[in-house]
Amino acid sequence: MTIPPQRPPRGREAEAARNDRRVLDAAREVFARQGADAPVSAIAAQAGVGIGSLYRRYGSKRELLQQLCLLAMEQSIAAAREGLAADDPWHGLSDYVQACVAFGAGALGALAGAIETTPRMRATSRRSRRLLAELVRRAHAARVLRPDVSPLDVAYLIERLGRRGAEPDDAEQENVRDRVVAIALAGLRAHAGSPPLPGRPPSERRYTGRWSTPAAGGS
């Protein structure tokens, strides 16, 4: 699989990317504490920027939340590309899982069904899932991943482990998160005699359908 090179941002573009990342990190923390109904003012305060600056850049709360979802998916895509560049299929997959959990890939899951999804969001989501499917395919081909694990199993695992709680994200929480991720990764590895997973693989329709409900407002 060919991974096209990406030009690093420069100048004002790089500054805008840093600001977006700061707002995204802030939003993850705020939504963890207050849920999807958290006001934009709380995100701005957490990020250390003025609410006027946010609205000048994004226009509305809806546009801000849509952009944050895009940024989160693009982070996952970058992690998947790095994983696919790894020579070892297991390291590629496990590094991807660890990276996504570390930056809180599941933290914006609270927005599912609360905002309208755009064509760009849907296209980015499909690209992210395709890259994850390739990571899983490589690991299956190398016989290092349980054969009954699907890409959506991994996606749901990341979403659950990547959520942030209301407690401070300090060194102790990071230690707990690292241990839990290590336990989960051990469960994903192929081992002779492992009992089969219960039930059926997750449904693609259900996974994506959570985001199909348009927002009631958005101002």
Provide a descriptive summary of the structure in words:
It is a single chain. This protein is mostly helical. It has nine helices and no strands. It has helices at residues 11-34, 40-47, 51-58, 61-85, 89-102, 119-141, 151-161, 171-188, 204-209. Residues 215-219 have low confidence and may be disordered.
* Sheet of most strands: none
Cα distance spanning the termini:
42 Å
Please give the count of helices. 9
Indicate the percent of residues in helices: 55-70%
The rough form would be described as globular
What's the overall average pLDDT, rounded?
A: 84
Q: Return the CATH architecture of the domain at 62-192 and 201-209.
A: Orthogonal Bundle
The CATH homology group name of the domain at 62-192 and 201-209 = Tetracycline Repressor, domain 2
Query: How much strand?
Result: under 5%
Ordered list of secondary-structure elements with their pairings:
Elements: H1 11-34, H2 40-47, H3 51-58, H4 61-85, H5 89-102, H6 119-141, H7 151-161, H8 171-188, H9 204-209
State the gist of this model.
By secondary structure, the chain is mostly helical. Helices cover 63% and strands 0% of the residues. It has a domain at 62-192 and 201-209: Tetracycline Repressor, domain 2, CATH 1.10.357.
Keywords:
219 residues, Tetracycline Repressor, domain 2
